Amino acid sequence: MSLLGALLLTAGAYFGGIIIARSFAEELYAIDGVLELLDYMQTRIESLKTPLYQLFCDCAQPYLESVGFLPMLRSSPAQINSLWQSATELLPLSQAVKKELLLLGESLGDLPLEEQQKRISLCINSLKSQQKNIASSLPKRQKGVRTTALLIGAVISILLI
Amino acid sequence: MLNSATEIIFKYLPMRISKAINGLPPRCIESLTEIRLRANMPLSLTAEGKNMFITQNGSACRINRGICTTKEELAECLRRLTQGSLYSYEEYIAQGYIPLAEGGRAGVCGTAVLKNGNIAGFADISSVNLRLHRFLPDIALPLAEHYQKHGVAGTLVCAPPGLGKTSFLRSIAYLLSVGRVIEPLRIALADERQELAAALPKNGIIDYVANAPKADAITLLTRTMAPQIIICDEISPNECLSVLESQNTGVTFIASAHCTHPKQLLKRGRMGLMLESGIFPLCVILGYNQGYTCQIAPTRSLL
């Protein structure tokens, strides 16, 4: 009976580890969503010079929609850059990635066309390289969390037995 | 109580400034034609041709007691005017204005950035002049009635800036297109600064080309839309050739020009040529003398 209990505890800890490891991928989804939005912004600004508010109203990115990022940007056409800062806080991103987005938000909409495009391109490039780093280290981090959770479960089980 | 045009413009002003203006007596607010914001300088308002300054609670005062616009407020106003997207309005800003969705415009100026000798934009916008446009359908009624008696003729509307040339053109476009005084006519607007068409009710026979150089718009409208009347605001020497070319197509022109008297135009090269060509047999001189005045006379009698 105690052996079965120990087994269940270890398995529970392991599954807990899997769930935590999966949540690590959430940041990648967020970066993916932001990159899609930035790409959309870049294209629309370049071809049609669409104002940001209109652009955010037209954009349909499911992830950014679900976390409330886009709905927040659509709340007022007058304060785009302060809204961008608040919306960034809604995303499950590391501080380094957030910093890039906040930097972009500081001057968003206040720059001439060429400069605005340059800033968006810089942000896209930076996010892409961060995405690459996160993606390459993700399996290792996920494996680490799963293993640690398994070990913790096993140790607790042994201690309880 | 604010009228709708003023309400629309108020959406572009920072809270502190719109509150101060809101403190003015309603009659005074209704007569406002311009609101000028300058960085770290007193806010000035223009009503009935006179400039005035106000305190925070909306009482008229001397310039040294008037509220000043801060740089941040000016930036906020610009953000509101450009919908938080300066790049969308770059080309307009280079020409010194920002069109409003409702049909008005805001003049802007400051330290210019030059590209090949032309103004490409402003490094630092220090002044914004919000021009309050209202749709006054009846102000051109005397001209419409003149057309009823004597027939429609090419007309030049003369007035210095701020005396209602655009409102007058809007009114005549409306009156002629809906057929309020005479049978409805096909009206075409060469609306380069997007001030005419956007503010007009959509119930007349009106076609327009907005946001294009007037000369190109006139040529396009003449060729493709078969208008009976083309209306264009603030005609300049650049459009003279297009107007003269269209002269023989049977289109009647109604245009406005910056001047207090048509004689002044004779000194402006091509403008004088256009006037002498007889394309504008009629002249309307707008003025202000304890109320807006409108003098209609044959151009030849004025030259």
In words, what does this structure look like?
- The complex is a heterodimer of chains A (161) and B (303).
- With 161 residues, chain A is mainly α.
- Chain A has one domain (2-160).
- Helix content of chain A is 83%, strand content 0%.
- Chain A has helices at residues 2-24, 26-48, 52-58, 62-66, 69-73, 80-88, 95-107, 113-160.
- In chain A, helix 6 packs antiparallel against helix 7.
- The termini of chain A are close together.
- The model of chain A has no long low-confidence stretch (mean pLDDT 88).
- Chain B is α/β, with parallel strands linked by helices.
- Chain B has 2 domains: 4-131, Beta-Lactamase (2-Layer Sandwich); 141-302, Rossmann fold (3-Layer(aba) Sandwich), CATH 3.40.50.300.
- Helix content of chain B is 32%, strand content 30%.
- Chain B has a 7-stranded antiparallel sheet. Chain B has a 7-stranded mixed sheet with strand order 12-11-13-14-10-15-16, sandwiched between helices.
- The termini of chain B are far apart.
- The A-B interface holds A 45, 49-54, 77-81, 108-113, 116 and B 75-76, 79-80, 82-88, 90, 121.
